[in-house]
Amino acid sequence: MFTSMNPRDTFAQLGSIFGGLMFFWAIFQQYFPYPVRNYIEKYTHRLVNYVYPYIQVRFNEFTGERLMRSEAYSAIQNYLSANTSMQAKRLKADVVKKTQSLVLSMDDHEEVADEYKGVKLWWASGKNTPKTQSLSFYPVSDERRYYKLTFHKRHRDLIIGPYLKHVLKEGKAIKVRNRQRKLYTNNGAYWSHVVFEHPASFQTLAMEPERKKEIIDDLIAFSKAEDFYARIGRAWKRGYLLYGPPGTGKSTMIAAMANLLNYDIYDLELTAVKDNTELRRLLIETSSKSVIVIEDIDCSLELTGQRKKEKKKEKKKEDDQEQEGKEESKEKSSKEEKDGKSSQVTLSGLLNFIDGLWSACGGERIIVFTTNYKEKLDPALIRKGRMDKHIELSYCGFEAFKVLAKNYLCLDEHDFFPRIRTLLGETKITPADVAEHLMPKTIFGDAEVSLKSLIKGLEMVKEEEEKKKAEEDEAKKKELLEKEEAKDGKPNHDQGKVQSG
Q1: Per-residue pLDDT tens over the stretch 198-244
Q2: Which domain holds residue 454?
Q3: The pTM of the whole model exceeds 0.85
Q4: Which helix (DSSP H) or strand (DSSP E) does residue 85 occupy?
Q5: Whether 346 and 281 share a structural domain
Q6: In this structure, are strands 264-267 and 68-69 parallel, antiparallel, or unpaired?
Q7: Same domain, yes or no: 24 and 155
Q8: What is the distance between the alpha carbons of residues 71 and 168, in angstroms, rounded to a whole number?
Q9: Region of residue 101 (left: phi > 0; alpha: psi -120 to 50; beta: else)
Q10: Is 71 inside any structural domain?
Q11: Among 8, 186, 243, 252, which is least packed by CB within 10 angstroms?
């Protein structure tokens, strides 16, 4: 019948049908009793669900009474922004706080497709605006945004289980990667922070390539080992002890670790912590994906593990000073004793902080101790399980120098390199001292001038070391000669003078 009608008549007839349906629906909503309408709508939905093979899941932006933003909504937003939003024709752009990077996301009422293990599904963004607007001197938006996921019902188990877990995990990981990293320090039991923008990296770190690769592999393996640590029943953390002379790059190594793994840094000052309870509170307030640092741990331990011994020494010292009547020294000692009582952190509390029960609160943490004197540390503090990896940062070798020359002078080779290699093998100089010589000496940054400065500095260090060694050898010979004379019973010159007198 419709084939013999012209298009105008066909559309007119379809319009009449739709108009009749709308009129009937209005009469149905207006005059039919609620129980009847409810009964009809229930079976109508069942009929539609039987014919329509797709399932829809809705994720609202706010949960409860809109007091908190849904974590699931935020994770889905991050996931879609990174993975599927480029399909959308209309996007929203936002700037991450205090950075210049743009974040794109789907605009309202847009739909994009996604695929998971060969199964296709669809994400749609939407918002609901209430029909009645409230008047207020402080107006707030009543728009309720949401994401709607649509997929075929035969894939229910795959989508509801593994796929949504994948979306939430990936969305949280994207949030961590895009976050603004921070450097924390403690004031008593509270953390304060600044933006962490240290440029150090393993690429610019003055160290042998083989050792750098070993450390990088260890860090990356740790960051991806969540399931492994859960399987073996250990807290997801790892300890690193960095030791070596001053100026060998321990702090730079910590910054490179944080930049490699995209972690925050918590610089813990033990002397500012009142007691073990405050130390435990600080640990609980640290976040996952962080590096907890205690620098110069050997100096901090003098105020913790050896506290009783130090108090006895101070007490004896005070008694001696009182007998001698030295008022100034006595006041100084009293002040030191008073300051010592301001912190009651113990070695036991520090050990529990590292790997006790409370250390399992949170995960993916790296704990770093630095020291100039490893031999001064208590063996219980640096045993395996607490400080899992010991990294010695020593004096500058030729491979480390080549990294510095590349960083500072953009040089891979030079005629002076053989001479520098020889001098570095004969002297002990820190990377910090080498870097100071390589700093540009003129506005034009002449590389040859910097290398000559380094050679001159190395030669001076070599002369000083040789002179010091000669003096030590002379002192040893003199001490040996005195011992031999004493053994033979021959008086030395001083004894002869006393006898003649």
Answers
A1: 999 999 999 999 999 999 999 999 999 989 998 998 889 999 999 99
A2: 398-488
A3: no
A4: none
A5: yes
A6: unpaired
A7: yes
A8: 9
A9: beta
A10: yes
A11: 8
